[in-house]
Amino acid sequence: MRHLLATSTALGLTLLAAAPRAQAQTADRKTAIGLNVSAMQYKGNFGSDYWKFGENKYAPGITFSRYISKGLDVQLSGNYVEFKQTAPNSAPYFGSNFATNVVNVNLGLKFKAFKEESRIRPYLLAAPGLTYMSREATINRNGTSTNQDEDKNHFDLFGAAGIDFRLGDAVTLFVQTGQHIPLNANIDGDPARDDNKFDDRFLQHTVGLNIALGKAKDTDGDGVPDRKDKCPDTPSGVAVDENGCPLDGDKDGVPDYQDQCPTEAGTAAMQGCPDKDNDGVADKNDDCPDEAGLPALRGCPDADGDGVADKNDKCPATPAGTQVDANGCPLVVDADGDGIPDAADKCPDTPKGAKVDANGCPMEIDPGVRKLEQPIRFETNSTVIKRTSYGTLDKMTKALKDHPEYSLRIIGHADSRGTDEYNQALSERRAGSVKRYFTGKQVDPARIVTEGRGESEPSAPNTSAAGMSQNRRVEFKFEFFIPNAPQP
């Protein structure tokens, strides 16, 4: 058994080194059942077998344990062994012999050291119980042989020390050594007794496996139990750290699965990408990354506001409101014949005969088109358009194609979960996702204006799942198309 204990300890350490993060019996798996084998060593009037591993008597056993706290379990154990011995030739009772069947049932407390997550945990066990002994014995003294058969129960004092080796999510290998002192017990049947109650006792050296029952609750399925998961709503399939939160390789606060620049620290508003000139255009999309500019001009400045980036503008001081050509120089025409010069006409492609205002734009949007301005909604933390929304979007697509003088403003919103910065970026991405749907239907992207308003304009209180569902939305507003106008 000494070899078995040493081998078991070495095996436990080897398996431990190869095992993944282990929990075994914890607050998530409170009940465990174990099977074990023990080497029992008798001590009594026939002598002592303590630490004589060649004299072992082997015993099967079973345990049931219940988690109480991080440092305490309650344990019920039972085992059976038969002690047999014949008195040696030199003994005063030569020829005496006994065979005693012993059944132990013990209930006690297991005091565990170290943290619950530790792979190796020493412990102490205090487990009083009941010992039943059925003895067949013959004692020879002074030429007289007496029969000492007896069946009797005894109160048992049992204490032990051991080590748990956690091998996996539910399995623990343990090794343990302890001593049983069944009070007033007479294992060998010798009627000569000492004054104390501890004449006969035995050591128990045990190795076994405990298997924790049940399964830790893990709502988001990321492998981290809810009890320890600091991000319990992580989307399926997303890689997480030991706290259950999505990995963030560049430590910029934007999870890798949402980070468009996962190897460069950026901002949430830029979906994890850097923006060194702080103009709202990620450096990877910025044609003028060292100068603050406009999103519509790929991050380049436009000092005279004519819609032509300064780097391409051959007339950089054009008066405000003047219509210009591709080089940024003024045009003096009235292309749509609405009586408003193109330089002042904000709607230069108004259909012939349309009634226009002082800016050259039609006075009102068709009421039938207005009725198409129905919001669509999204799942939590998602920018994916639901299939049920396709019909609504396709009707607006047809209206845009039937009315080339119209543009469409797309306004993204979010519910209140998450930070203001994150929800602002999420609302902008939702608006962008819907814009891509329209451009995929061959709608000119210049006619689609997007903006995000984060969680600032809820359509319902964010106090219930239904209310938050109403707030995860994109809204629409038809407007008159202004060619070459800066787009967000």
Into which percentage range does the β-strand content fall? Answer: 25-35%
User: How much is the average pLDDT?
Assistant: 87
Given the C-alpha coordinates, what overall shape results? rod-shaped
The SS-based structural class is alpha+beta
SSE topology string: HEEEEEEEEEEEHEHEHEHE
Number of helices: 5
**What kind of sheet is the major sheet?**
11 strands, antiparallel
For the record, the count of structural domains works out to: 4
Percentage of residues in helical conformation: 10-25%
CATH architecture descriptor of the largest domain: Beta Barrel
Q: If you compute it from the alpha carbons, what radius of gyration comes out, rounded to the nearest whole angstrom?
A: 41 Å
- The CATH class of the largest domain is identified as Mainly Beta
Describe what you observe in this structure.
The protein has 488 residues and is α+β, with helices and mostly antiparallel strands. It folds into four domains: 2-212, Beta Barrel (Porin), CATH 2.40.160.20; 223-247, no CATH class; 249-287, no CATH class; 364-480, 60s Ribosomal Protein L30, Chain: A, CATH 3.30.1330. It contains five helices and 15 strands. It has helices at residues 2-18, 367-370, 390-402, 420-440, 465-471; strands at residues 31-44, 47-48, 57-69, 72-86, 97-112, 120-126, 129-141, 144-147, 150-166, 171-182, 201-212, 376-377, 406-412, 448-452, 473-480. Strands 1, 2, 3, 4, 5, 6, 7, 8, 9, 10 and 11 form an eleven-stranded antiparallel beta sheet that branches. A hairpin with a 4-residue loop joins strand 9 (150-166) and strand 10 (171-182). The longest helix is centred in the C-terminal third of the chain and has 21 residues, at 420-440. The protein is rod-shaped, with a radius of gyration of 41 Å. The chain starts with a helix and ends in an 8-residue tail after the last strand. Mean pLDDT is 87; it is low at 1-23.
